[in-house]
Amino acid sequence: DAKTTQPTSMDCAEGRAANLPCNHSTISGNEYVYWYRQIHSQGPQYIIHGLKNNETNEMASLIITEDRKSSTLILPHATLRDTAVYYCIVRIRVDSDMRFGAGTRLTVKP
Amino acid sequence: GAGVSQSPRYKVAKRGQDVALRCDPISGHVSLFWYQQALGQGPEFLTYFQNEAQLDKSGLPSDRFFAERPEGSVSTLKIQRTQQEDSAVYLCASSLRQYNEQFFGPGTRLTVL
């Protein structure tokens, strides 16, 4: 699986959009981009995934660049409950496991 | 509906003791995964089951670690002769098929003294 690079930490003001970047320059054509988050003392929670088209669900939007070498997770109106570690994972869809990195620690401030 | 549950939530063991950690996946989920998460790091894959078959155990750190899922539902991760470096949160996840999104349990925090 391709490796991902994320900033170690980010801050965001409550009510504003949180934009979390991820670099995955070695991604191959059959690999998906997945995002999970982990709130303190809980297991990781699935957010969204995509292949090459932008995706949106009730939690977030995923913007993937045309060359697929990077992506951005957007939380449109961050709340204090969105404070968590966010993991960007590149994964071949038929693979069994996921390789987590260190993630980005997002802190939403009032 | 009920999510993935794990028990115990916390376990303290003396070095050298054996421990057993339990995972109850979401009903009907075929795939089950175990991960180990050290403090301040992301989860690391340990092993994967499809129904009762253990298809991948490449992440198990030593032969002291053993996992089973005899009836294709509940799974147990056993660690023999625990050592201090085994201290971590052990996460279980399940999915409908191997390529679907995984649903994680709250984890078991193991502390080896």
**Unreliable stretches covering 5 or more consecutive residues of chain A:** none
Radius of gyration of chain A: 13 Å
How many helices of chain A? 0
Q: What's the helix-strand series of chain B?
A: EEEEEEEEEEE
Low-confidence segments of chain B, given as residue ranges, are none
Q: How would you classify the helix and strand content of chain A by structural class?
A: mainly beta
Strand residue percentage of chain B: over 45%
What distance lies between the first and last C-alpha atoms of chain B, to the nearest angstrom?
A: 37 Å
Q: How many beta-strand segments of chain B?
A: 11
Task: Describe the model.
The complex is a heterodimer of chains A (110) and B (113). The relative contact order of chain A is 0.35. Chain A has 110 residues and is mostly beta strands. Chain A is globular. Chain A has a 5-stranded mixed β-sheet, with no helix packed on it. A 4-stranded antiparallel β-sheet of chain A has the order 2-7-6-5, with no helix packed on it. Chain A is built from no helices and 9 strands. Helix content of chain A is 0%, strand content 47%. In chain A, a hairpin with a 6-residue loop joins β3 and β4 (45-50). Chain B is an all-beta fold and 113 residues long. Chain B is 0% helix and 49% strand. Chain B has no helices and 11 strands. Chain B has strands at 5-7, 10-13, 19-24, 31-37, 44-50, 53-56, 65-68, 75-79, 88-95, 103-104, 108-112. In chain B, the strands form 2 sheets. In chain B, strands 2, 4, 5, 6, 9, 10 and 11 form a 7-stranded mixed β-sheet that branches. In chain B, a hairpin with a 6-residue loop joins β4 (31-37) and β5 (44-50). At the A-B interface, β4 of A face β4, β5 and β10 of B.
Describe the protein's topology:
The complex is a heterodimer of chains A (110) and B (113).
Chain A: E1 9-13, E2 18-23, E3 31-38, E4 45-50, E5 55-56, E6 61-64, E7 70-75, E8 84-92, E9 104-109
Chain B: E1 5-7, E2 10-13, E3 19-24, E4 31-37, E5 44-50, E6 53-56, E7 65-68, E8 75-79, E9 88-95, E10 103-104, E11 108-112
Parallel strand pairs in B: 2-11
Antiparallel strand pairs in B: 1-3, 3-8, 4-5, 4-9, 5-6, 7-8, 9-10, 9-11
